[in-house]
Design brief:
The complex is a heterodimer of chains A (224) and B (49). By secondary structure, chain A is mainly alpha-helical. Chain A is built from 7 helices and no strands. Classes of the chains: A mainly alpha (224), B mainly alpha (49).
């Protein structure tokens, strides 16, 4: 993606975020939770962006194993890393929210635990990549690992339906209690997250291409 | 509503942006390192030629 396009995307994301923050400030407080419920407009879109990144990594990993093109591997690592950043934002904002509403920073509840396991699995994916030197072997091993890691994503997603959890039930789909008037804000705040995610992925892919160029020059330097 | 509730709301929002800002910092640092490494290697190859 070209630099001006990335800059426009960052600008649009910034404007939307400012607009959303202003609208958020006008929303009435939630009856039970008060002002802090507004964290939902960041906590949930961060999780959605992370899961979208992990799903994109799954697709790219399968495509790499089928076609053997290293561009799919570069895309997989880019979306995984960006997914991890948004996943960390989701986990930390959730902990702060939990501290105020539940009185605890953390509990080993199925939703929180499976999300933490998911985050650690994808961190393991990045560590695994550092351990394998040869590019095609690294891409193959990481693709298999990424497919394996994705098995945890549906567990995170459905954990609140499958088990009794401290974490609330789904607020948007599946019998949650969120007022539909808040849905617009939730989805509108997801757009800047997606735009920022796309910008990060584009930058990260450019870096992977620079890494491939460095590897190629090193091989050439050895041959001279 | 007590001020603690509002304070924690700000902590939550700040945490999201702090995490993303740290990631942007990491991306920028990696970009700089890659650029430096690439230029160094190109220079070395030209010298060897």
């Amino acid at each position: 993606m070209r630099k001006p396009v990335l800059l426009v995307m960052i600008g649009v994301a910034g404007l939307l975020l400012v607009r959303n923050l202003l609208v958020m400030a006008q929303l009435p407080d939630e009856v039970m939770q008060g002002a802090i419920f507004r964290i939902i407009f960041f906590h949930v879109p961060a999780a959605w962006t992370a899961f979208l990144g992990f799903f994109a990594a799954l697709v790219a990993s399968i495509l790499y194993l089928v076609r053997g093109n290293l561009k799919f591997d570069a895309f997989a690592v880019a979306v995984t890393e960006v997914g991890l950043a948004f996943g960390a934002a989701n986990l930390i904002s959730g902990m702060i929210w939990g501290r105020e509403i539940w009185g605890i920073w953390w509990t080993w509840d199925p939703r929180l635990t499976s999300m933490l396991v998911c985050w650690l699995l994808y961190s393991g994916y990045l560590m695994l990549r550092r351990a394998v030197e040869e590019p095609t072997q690294r891409a193959r091993v990481s693709a298999v690992f990424s497919i394996f890691a994705f098995a945890d994503v549906p567990i995170v997603w459905f954990s609140i339906k499958w088990w009794r959890t401290q974490h609330p039930q789904p607020v948007v789909w599946g019998g949650g209690s969120m007022d539909p008037s808040y849905w617009n804000m939730l989805f509108l705040n997801w757009i800047p997250f997606l735009l920022l995610g796309l910008v990060f992925v584009a930058i990260r892919m450019r870096q992977e291409s620079a890494k491939r160029e460095i590897d190629a020059i090193r091989r050439m330097a050895h041959a001279i | 509503m007590d001020s603690r509730n509002i304070t924690f709301m700000f902590y939550g929002l700040a945490a999201v942006w702090a995490v993303l800002a740290i990631y942007v910092g990491m991306l920028a640092a990696r970009e700089r390192n890659l650029k430096r490494e690439l230029e160094g290697l190109r220079h070395m190859v030209e010298e060897r030629k």
